[in-house]
TrEMBL record:
<dbReference type="Pfam" id="PF03616">
    <property type="entry name" value="Glt_symporter"/>
</dbReference>
<feature type="transmembrane region" description="Helical">
    <location>
        <begin position="70"/>
        <end position="88"/>
    </location>
</feature>
<feature type="transmembrane region" description="Helical">
    <location>
        <begin position="347"/>
        <end position="366"/>
    </location>
</feature>
<dbReference type="InterPro" id="IPR004445">
    <property type="entry name" value="GltS"/>
</dbReference>
<keyword id="KW-0997">Cell inner membrane</keyword>
<feature type="transmembrane region" description="Helical">
    <location>
        <begin position="128"/>
        <end position="149"/>
    </location>
</feature>
<keyword id="KW-1133">Transmembrane helix</keyword>
<keyword id="KW-0029">Amino-acid transport</keyword>
<keyword id="KW-0915">Sodium</keyword>
<feature type="transmembrane region" description="Helical">
    <location>
        <begin position="288"/>
        <end position="308"/>
    </location>
</feature>
<keyword id="KW-0739">Sodium transport</keyword>
<feature type="transmembrane region" description="Helical">
    <location>
        <begin position="381"/>
        <end position="401"/>
    </location>
</feature>
<feature type="transmembrane region" description="Helical">
    <location>
        <begin position="94"/>
        <end position="116"/>
    </location>
</feature>
<comment type="function">
    <text>Catalyzes the sodium-dependent transport of glutamate.</text>
</comment>
<protein>
    <recommendedName>
        <fullName>Sodium/glutamate symporter</fullName>
    </recommendedName>
</protein>
<dbReference type="GO" id="GO:0015501">
    <property type="term" value="F:glutamate:sodium symporter activity"/>
</dbReference>
<feature type="transmembrane region" description="Helical">
    <location>
        <begin position="248"/>
        <end position="268"/>
    </location>
</feature>
Length: 409
């Protein structure tokens, strides 16, 4: 029997999950030592409880999906609303290098998937589903492509396989990024852990002009009711643009995931208001609402993971996904970290790459937040990852998937 929580109880559950994650991180040194984000820690506990309820009592409990999707879209809209053209230009050469590197990884991810799928007796196209469709693309992309693979390419079970792979990737992406960055930082002596007192002092300092959205989620942002109202209106406008564009482009070559349109709507609105109408944009309000949406979305998404779908995966599928995890680890350490300069920023970028390369951009942000709170800020990482992970890479992914399907489909 399925139970879907209404919006009120879904919100209460998400907040409870966040506080559970905070409690666990505070009292379990392992979680803090390896920089596991609070929403991941609390969300997995909730997912395990719901798994046990499903297995022993037969009940499936889920949060309100429209509310979860709204927080997700608000998160991506906040990235767009914080990305003026000056910041895009500021990303410069490093942003381009990172995008090229990750574009190469999208191809590698699908190639690894197809080779391993063939080796273990699966349809090679399953390697694409358990490749960039489910991992770089995430749950939404897996849900969109699954029916297409089942009907057009006769890949039986593509939809549940894609959802299970995205679920696996979301967990691994949230668990892998922190330890990998910590390994790089310690191995190359890139930074020293901040003392607990320093961390608290940093949290209490006012937000600096050099800090980007999501970079310091625990810092105080001073906003007013008027700022909040205007900012909420901007979020609503960006989400309205996303809804309109989703309906206009459905079934066309321009069809993109809704969150891409939300991000694009935010960019458009920000720069039209700021450049065209010379209006002041309240970045502090965008920070507050963006970080709130990120935390609540991650909590809802992780607690809603249907772990029994992963339990039902065949051994060949698990082998494939383990191979993808190894490929991600190797690429992050030996390619991404090196081409981005082998410095502290590169290590933080590697943590972000694990987040959106295996799961989703919110995972990437959470991974980087955990690292920078422990070791100090990385302005470059928080400039590059949201733009590449939430926008540019989705465009690249669509092109790569379409090309490989034309060749191998």
């Amino acid at each position: 029997m399925d139970y879907i929580l209404n919006p009120t109880f879904s919100l209460m559950l998400a907040v409870l999950v966040l506080y559970i994650g905070r409690f666990l991180n505070k009292h379990i040194p392992f979680l803090t030592k390896y920089n596991i984000p609070e929403p991941v820690a609390g969300g997995l506990v909730g997912a395990i409880i719901f798994f046990l309820i499903h297995q022993f009592l037969g009940y499936t409990i889920a949060v309100n999906k429209p509310m979860q999707d709204t927080f997700m879209l608000m998160f991506f809209a906040s990235i767009g609303l914080s990305a003026n053209f000056a910041k895009l230009k500021e990303g410069g050469k490093p942003l381009v290098i990172f995008l090229v590197a990750i574009s190469v990884f999208v191809v590698i991810q699908n190639a690894v998937g197809m080779v391993v799928a063939s080796a273990v007796g699966l349809d090679p196209l399953m390697g694409i589903i358990a490749g960039s469709i489910a991992l770089v693309g995430g749950l939404g992309t897996a849900g969109a492509w699954g029916p297409i693979f089942e009907t057009k390419y006769a890949v039986e079970g593509a939809l549940p396989m894609g959802i299970a792979s995205a679920t696996f990737g979301m967990i691994v992406g949230g668990l892998m990024g922190g330890p990998l960055a910590r390994y790089l930082i310690k191995k190359h002596d890139l930074a020293k852990p901040l003392t607990e007192e320093t961390q608290k002092d940093n949290d209490n300092k006012p937000i600096a002009d050099s800090e980007y959205i999501f970079e310091a989620p625990k810092k105080v942002r001073l906003i007013t009711a008027d700022n909040a109202i205007v900012t909420l209106g901007m979020f609503a406008f960006a989400l309205a643009i996303a809804e309109i564009m989703k309906n206009i482009t459905v079934g066309t070559i321009f069809e993109l995931p809704t969150f891409v349109w939300a991000l694009g709507g935010g960019i458009l609105l920000r720069n039209v208001l700021e450049t065209g109408f010379k209006r002041e944009i309240f970045d502090r309000s965008i920070d507050v609402f963006g970080n709130t949406a990120l935390a609540l979305f991650l909590a809802m998404a992780l607690v809603s993971l249907k772990l029994w779908q992963m339990a039902d995966l065949a051994i060949p599928m698990l082998v494939l996904l383990i191979a993808q995890s190894v490929a991600m680890w190797v690429f992050a350490i030996y390619v991404s970290f090196r081409v981005m300069g082998k410095n502290y920023d590169s290590a933080v970028l590697a943590a972000g790459l694990c987040g959106f390369g295996m799961g989703a951009t919110p995972n990437a942000i959470a991974n980087m937040q955990a690292i920078t709170r422990m070791y100090g800020p990385s302005h470059r990482a928080f400039l590059i990852v949201p733009l590449v992970g939430a926008f540019f890479i989705d465009l690249v992914n669509v092109v790569v998937i379409q090309t490989m399907l034309q060749i191998f489909g």
